[in-house]
Amino acid sequence: MSLAGKQIVVTRAPHQADELADLLREQDAVPILYPCIDIAPPDDTAPLDAALRNLHAYEWLILTSTNTVLALQQRIAVLGLTIDRTRLKVAAVGPKTAQAASDLLGMQVDEMPQDYRAESLASVMSVREMMKVLLPQSDRARDTLGNILSNVGADVTQVTAYQNIIGHGGADVPTKLERGEIDALTFTSSSTVENFLKRVAPHDPKNLWAACIGPITAETAREHGFEQIVMPETYTLEQMVKTLTAVLN
Fold first, then answer.
1. Residue 127: what pLDDT?
2. Distances (CA, A) of 47 to 44, 53, 57, 110, 160
3. Nearest CA-CA partner of 230 in 248, 249, 215, 244
4. Nearest-10 Cα torsion for 66, 71, 77, 78
5. Could you tell me which residues come within 8 angstroms of residue 48 by beta carbon, excluding any fewer than 6 positions away?
6. Contact 97, 64 (CB under 8 A)
7. Is residue 71 within 8 Å of 65, Cβ to Cβ?
8. DSSP sequence for the chain
9. Residues paired with residue 89 on neighbouring β-strands, in sequence order
10. pTM (2 decimals)?
11. What is the structure's pLDDT at 2?
């Protein structure tokens, strides 16, 4: 099975699109790059800066996305900091985030959940009463993980590491939708779903297959009217492409 000739929209940020585009090309698809998200520093970096300067005071650093890792790396460079990992442990949501932590921060990850979901991180961290945890996230991140950790006694510092903003540029997807040239869409976060619909309005793409990276993204797509949704059992780009290949053959 392959995606030969299928035109598949990639909605990831420009700095992340190549990986998914390459996976699609391996299946002979034609990736259509249409960035629907991008990242920017927070308007106020003071809380993040304070947390990074006092990183030695935390027992755990939680990394919930590769964007978080990139944002931390950029801010650490601006501040000219050297990371002291004497007592700091690192938890990452999945292997891609763990690899980014190693490549960009020089940090090896201590714990990672098997199902690659942020909410599952608490279960692998052996949380103790008043354990100090730093949780840097997007300005649009849900409070779920922080609440879970706080409810079991952790002292959680949540800071905005970056802003999730709407993307721009890319292919002329609205015209391609008008011509019926698009075969499927790929979404890797709830923001990509919401921003894609904003970018292509007033066109209605909800008759197309929507490949979603995980259950939260899939639920967002469902809430916005998509009915043909496909999601892999393992929440990785590779498995998402495989699952999409199966339904388009």
1. 81
2. 7, 10, 15, 25, 8
3. 244
4. 170
5. 42, 75, 136, 159, 160, 161
6. yes
7. no
8. ---TT-EEEE-S-TTTHHHHHHHHHHTT-EEEE---EEEE--S--HHHHHHHHTGGG-SEEEE--HHHHHHHHHHHHHHT-----SS-EEEESSHHHHHHIIIII----SB--TT--GGGGGGGTT--TT-EEEEEEETT--SHHHHHHHHTT-EEEEEEEEEEEE---SS-HHHHHHTT---EEEESSHHHHHHHHHHHTT---TTSEEEESSHHHHHHHHHTT---EE--SS-SHHHHHHHHHHHT-
9. 60
10. 0.82
11. 83
- The two tokens of residue 15 are 């700095």
Q: Which residues contact 126 (CB under 8 A, 6 or more apart)?
A: none
Q: Which residue has the tokens 């339904």?
A: 247
**Does the pLDDT of residue 116 top 70, yes or no?**
no
Total Cβ atoms within 10 A of residue 128: 12
Q: How does pLDDT run across 125-164, given as a tens digit for each residue? A: 888 889 999 999 999 888 888 999 999 899 999 999 999 9
Burial class of 68 by CB neighbour count within 10 A (0 to 12, 13 to 18, 19+): buried
| Separation in Å, CA 76 to CA 71, 85, 106, 139, 215 | 9, 14, 12, 18, 32
Total length of the chain = 249
Number of C-beta neighbours around residue 249 at 10 A? 10
CA distance 75 to 105: 11
